[in-house]
Hints:
This protein is α/β, with parallel strands linked by helices. The protein contains 15 helices and 15 strands. The strands form 2 sheets. Strands 3-2-1-4-5-6-14-15 form an 8-stranded mixed beta sheet, sandwiched between helices. A 7-stranded mixed beta sheet has the order 9-8-7-10-11-13-12, sandwiched between helices. β12 (about 285-290) and β13 (about 290-295) form a beta hairpin. α6 (about 130-145) packs parallel to α7 and α6 runs antiparallel to α11. The chain is globular.
Amino acid sequence: MKIGVPRETKSQEYRVGVTPDGVGLLTSRGHDVMVEVGAGHGSGFSDDDYSRAGGRLAETEAVWSEPDLVVKVKEPNPVEAERLRAGQTIFTYLHLAAAPELLGRLLESDVIAIGYETIQNPDGSFPVLAPMSEVAGRLAAQIGATLLQKNRGGKGLLVGGVPGVMRGRVCVVGAGIVGINAVRVAHALGAEVDVLDIDLKRLSYVYDIFHGDLNTLYSSPANIKASVEASDLVIGAVYTAGRRAPVLVPESLVAAMEPGSVIMDVCVDQGGCVETIRPTTHDNPTYVVHGVIHYGVANMPGAVPRTSTSALTNTTLPFVERLADLGTAEAVRGDHALAMGVNVWRGEVTCRGLAESLDVAYRPLDEVIS
């Protein structure tokens, strides 16, 4: 199969879809891998690294239009979507519930679009979403703590405090992979941490691994209100497969926070769980609403590409191998987790959560393939 690895174009996105080692593995299996010139530079991989691995360096247009399978990291922009041709498969993060215009373009392009974020194992876990969620959760607490500094516009608070001074309070909404990693860093910094979720088993797990040294709260409106109002840093960490994130922190609650507080909404690429959040970029990451600093960068792991690219491709490469070796149709027929990742199949929406979020027609994947 002919595989394309484009250079990422999102603002300060330095990750790459396949590493040179991955290219070497794919070419050893007889596949033709085209890598856009400069695609790996941000992650520390040179063009020569890809050439030595057996990849073919190509320019932008060719790496998009020629391959049967395009493997990247972030969703295609409008120009890139126009380059896709009928019948191609694109394998990347999509987050289409918050991007109806992109969904429309993909449907019109007659392509197969597989989203990393909806690949789901039978046990309910998200194997490709997980490593980037770990990175984003840790970054959220790390960056949020620095935004509380006065020179960054915050209230001038050290989250861990010092002897004789109150420490800061961090509210983490969601106890999934993003949430638990945000808790890990906030707890290590010495903050008082609240973590909220509707899954009591998950809360019990978090309580146990941190030896009870934090507050675990059922995610009711009353508990969210009490925790957010009292917190210096709020981290949104909610994910529902393929769907738009539910709004759990309304604007009225944001307005009740102390000026100089910080909101980090990691689920902004799914629409966000804070009503006042909107996507931002690494170039201009923050804005202020009701005196509260909002951080809405939708590709946070792109800031640490050496870590992120390796972590991501460890999980994506086995799926890429399967798609390349078997072809897309056979690969998804034989792999339930990969089939769950199919959002669009040649003009049809095949992800139920996505269809319900955007109120568009849904067709089961088995029906569409057959």
